[in-house]
Amino acid sequence: MSFQLKGKVIFFATNNINKFNEAREMLNHYKIAVGMLRVKTIEIQSESLEEIAQTSALYAFEKCGLPIIVEDAGLFVDALNGFPGPYSSYVYKTIGNEGLLRLMNNVENRRAKFQSVVAYFSEELKSPVCFKGEVHGEITVKIHDGNSGFGFDPIFKPVNSDKTFSEMPTSEKNKLSHRARALKSFAEWYTKESDL
Ligand code: IMP
Fold first, then answer.
1. Widest distance between CA atoms in the chain
2. Which H or E run contains 119?
3. How far apart are the CA of 89 and the centre of ligand 1, in A?
């Protein structure tokens, strides 16, 4: 398979500028230029991040016809049997970080992980290709807002770190994060395919 598009330019369908900035910085290491596309995406209700990302990639492609990535992420908390997982967006909007910390009040096991799925689709492909990344860590007892990042970043501390994602600049979060890991495998695959 070889991509028609010369030069490495793709689009990221998202309304989240933080996600976009993380992706731009990561993909820049691979000389892949990325544009932010604020097309309306759909997020189907599913327990699979992969299914959500794939559906959303096809939907975004239908709207714009451009080589596109979409990304879906979730926070999985051990003591809550993996909740909120694929429902993270709804939980963040409704109870937020304070609410999640309340659910974890007096809970000793603070282990949690973030997962990310990046789905890529372009006209050369039959179906979207997915790339996964994850990072293990813990839910902090209090909010540690370092004014960086977004979402659950102020309450998530990756393993072997004394800072939450919110206390790290993008370049540091990108060394560890679920999204950076998914984007790295996408970028390696894309670089190989587009050089054919
Ligand atoms: P989404 O559906 O992928 O946009 O993300 C689900 C929820 O998880 C949203 O509320 C996001 O704010 C949150 N989220 C996703 N990725 C991250 C991250 O890297 N850090 C913190 N929160 C995140």
1. 56
2. strand 111-121
3. 6
72 flagged as catalytic: yes
Q: First vs last Cα of the chain: how many Å apart? A: 7
Domain boundary assignment for the chain: 9-194
What are the C-alpha distances in Å from 117 to residues 72, 128, 132, 182, 183? 5, 11, 5, 6, 9
78-115: per-residue pLDDT in tens? 999 999 999 999 999 999 999 999 999 999 999 999 99
DSSP β-ladder status, 33-37 and 9-13: parallel
Residues in the chain: 196
Rounded alpha-carbon distances, angstroms, from residue 73 to 15, 33, 120, 143: 14, 22, 15, 20
Query: What CA–CA distance (Å, rounded) separates 154 from 186?
Result: 27
Class of CATH domain 9-194: alpha beta
- Tell the residue nearest (CA) to atom 6 of ligand 1: 89
Whole-model pTM: value is 0.94
